[in-house]
Write a sequence for this structure.
């Protein structure tokens, strides 16, 4: 008996992802969907220049996670890392608040080198992914710089200043996204062909919104795919890691999965939330799937990806 092909077998899938949580679901999807049918569009609002290097944290987190070389404790940076350069940078009085390991530095050096030669970020990312033997397309949301700024009670902070230097403690009044950023041609083409779009369990405000803010991503997602499904970043009223829950409070939202679904509004056809939150999910504005959304290991990533793809494909073929 041949293995029954899943209904999404011939679907083109686009995943919108930001940091660690998004990378884990993207990894699960990449283990199930044929590489030529999968595109991962990644937030670059966290990118910044540091020590003369162009740092792209979310692109690197997705790339390292799919390559199986991400640091398992932090989720960002490399596994089996060493810190000789950063230690010496500190001895020489350089900035060491943003921790760059020796292996990770190689990525930033090569990326910066290729960008200085005039290559676009999309091509540089493709080059790096080839070196890491990653087959699905990992695309920056844009080839333009699109810095996310964080408006707090006292100041407007750059993203990494707020997130790392100040450990995301200053309360957020507003997330400021740039006005005039355009999607790359590769992102537009992927969305034109998309049957399913998955919003990964990333921070809605600083990982997913920056991607939707790039013209014309939101408009294309409203029009084209047969189903759009978001996965909750909130489990049991908490964020798995990072500032999502704290930001929801500061932005005046209830810290619930339902509030995330309502936030995405009519952009999505379906919402995947955690069974731990089932008791709080009353009337959901879209189709809902309750499951264990906590990805502790690779089998979890694959299981969740399978359930999300099945759910999205059912919505697309109803
Ligand atoms: N996050 C931290 O909290 N502290 C760090 O020192 C740090 C270094 C770092 C280096 C490379 C990289 O790709 C990510 C790094 N991150 C660090 C995480 C990063 O700030 C976040 O991953 C994203 O910007 C938000 O998802």
């Amino acid at each position: 008996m041949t293995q029954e092909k899943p209904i999404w077998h011939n679907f083109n899938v686009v995943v919108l992802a930001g940091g660690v949580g998004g990378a884990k679901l993207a990894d699960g999807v990449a283990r199930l969907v044929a590489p030529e049918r999968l595109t991962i569009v990644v937030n670059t609002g966290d990118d910044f220049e540091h020590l003369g290097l162009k740092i792209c944290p979310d692109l690197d987190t997705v790339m390292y996670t799919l390559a199986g070389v991400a640091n398992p404790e932090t989720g960002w940076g490399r596994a089996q890392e060493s810190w000789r350069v950063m230690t010496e940078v500190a001895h020489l009085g350089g900035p060491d608040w943003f921790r760059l390991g020796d292996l990770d530095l190689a990525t930033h050096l090569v990326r910066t080198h290729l960008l200085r030669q005039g290559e676009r970020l999309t091509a540089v990312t493709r080059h790096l992914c080839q070196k890491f033997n990653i087959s699905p397309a990992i695309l920056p949301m844009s080839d333009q710089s699109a810095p996310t700024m964080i408006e707090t009670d006292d100041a407007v902070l750059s993203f990494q200043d707020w997130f790392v230097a100040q450990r995301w403690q200053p309360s957020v009044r507003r997330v400021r996204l740039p006005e005039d950023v355009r999607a790359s041609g590769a992102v537009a083409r992927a969305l034109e062909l998309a049957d399913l779009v998955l919003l990964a369990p990333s921070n809605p405000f600083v990982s997913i919104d920056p991607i939707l803010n790039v013209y014309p991503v939101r408009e294309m997602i409203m029009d084209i795919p047969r189903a759009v499904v978001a996965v909750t970043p909130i489990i049991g009223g908490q964020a798995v890691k990072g500032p999502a829950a704290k930001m929801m409070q500061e932005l005046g939202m209830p810290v619930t999965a339902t509030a995330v679904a309502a936030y995405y509004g009519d952009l999505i056809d379906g919402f995947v939330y955690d069974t731990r939150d089932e008791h709080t999910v009353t009337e959901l504005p879209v189709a809902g799937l309750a499951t264990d959304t906590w990805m502790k290991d690779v089998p979890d990533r694959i299981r969740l990806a399978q359930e999300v793809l099945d759910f999205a494909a059912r919505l697309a073929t109803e």
User: Anything to note?
Assistant: The mean pLDDT is 96. The domain at 9-317 is CATH 3.40.50.10680 (Rossmann fold).
